[in-house]
Amino acid sequence: MKNKNIWITGASSGIGRQLAIDLAPHNRVLISSRKSEILHQVKQSNPNQIDVLPFDLADYHQAKLWVEQAIQQLIEIDILILNGGVSQRSLILDTKIEVDERLIQIDYLANVALAKAILPYFIKRGGGQIVVVTSLLGKFGTPYRSGYAGAKHALHGFFDVLRQEHQKDGIDVTLICPGFVNTQVAFNALNEHGDAQNAQDEATAQGMEVEVFSKKMIRAISQKKKEAYIGQKEIFAVYVKRFFPNILDFIILRSKVR
Question: Is residue 98 pLDDT above 80, yes or no?
Answer without folding.
Answer: yes
